[in-house]
Amino acid sequence: MSPRCDDCKKTIKPDVILFGDPLPASVYQEATDLVMNCTLLLILGFPLVVHPVAALPGLALKNGAKISSTFSRLPYDRYAHVVVYRPLGEFCQEILDRIENL
Ligand SMILES: [Zn+2]
Question: SS3 of 5, please?
Fold first, then answer.
């Protein structure tokens, strides 16, 4: 049985989208607005298999953004300007190291 709030008796859920839950329209709209106005979209460690989020790189490309991926074999790899097949932790550490050395 799901945990319930002692006061209002509603089911207590974490503030995340669980698999199978719909994405709130306002969240997707905000993501869409950001992607349509970005110049670079980094796809970090996400396999792009869950819709509607999986469509966001296509929107970015359509609006002239460059995309970069760190996950192995994504449908957008052939359109990506940079594809790095490395573990996300290693990739992020290298970026941080390079930024510190600028
Ligand atoms: Zn409550």
Answer: coil
